[in-house]
Amino acid sequence: EAGVTQFPSHSVIEKGQTVTLRCDPISGHDNLYWYRRVMGKEIKFLLHFVKESKQDESGMPNNRFLAERTGGTYSTLKVQPAELEDSGVYFCASSRLQETQYFGPGTRLLVL
Amino acid sequence: DQQVKQNSPSLSVQEGRISILNCDYTNSMFDYFLWYKKYPAEGPTFLISISSIKDKNEDGRFTVFLNKSAKHLSLHIVPSQPGDSAVYFCAATNPFLTQGGSEKLVFGKGTKLTVNP
Known about the structure:
The structure holds two protein chains of two kinds.
Chain A: E1 5-7, E2 10-13, E3 19-24, E4 31-37, E5 43-50, E6 53-56, E7 65-68, E8 75-79, E9 88-95, E10 102-103, E11 107-111
Chain B: E1 4-5, E2 10-14, E3 19-25, E4 32-38, E5 45-51, E6 56-59, E7 62-67, E8 72-77, E9 86-93, E10 106-107, E11 111-116
Parallel strand pairs in B: 2-11
Antiparallel strand pairs in B: 1-3, 3-8, 4-5, 4-9, 6-7, 7-8, 9-10, 9-11
């Protein structure tokens, strides 16, 4: 069974540009989560999809962040326009209902 | 305010000895706790978990202890091996605390464990 995959693995962009991160969950996992770790800090929750519906987006920092999960399969997280403080590692995780979350390798975003 | 705290940023132990990683939490409503292990450039990997109705859970070399009255949990690794060297994250959850019943995880900052040969 393939694990959670994320693309790209790294992204370096300039302030004001747009970046789109993609997450492919484990097949059959209805739950999909986005988390972010800013350097030196804890991993923080951003939002949670159940299938294509946003269950909880209480962790989204502001309206520059837009997450979608069309068709309940893969998800994208777009940052537009990117700011310096958006730099960090963005993790995606997936799970079956009420089961363990499995994390992807993360996308390392650097905003210059 | 951090609800899950790992006050030791790093820990160094000798191979074969016990590693004890600690975690404190402030929200008494958390009802499920997890430990994740993370190697550089990889995502966190689930290690072991414990429900708030238990005080101990064991899986091979790994044991998690939960002290609800102290709001404290610990991960014991016995015996420690060099391959255990990684960052260990403590996490907590309770879907009844969150919007829409989300099982979002609340993480600590992590403890970097180094096991020396």
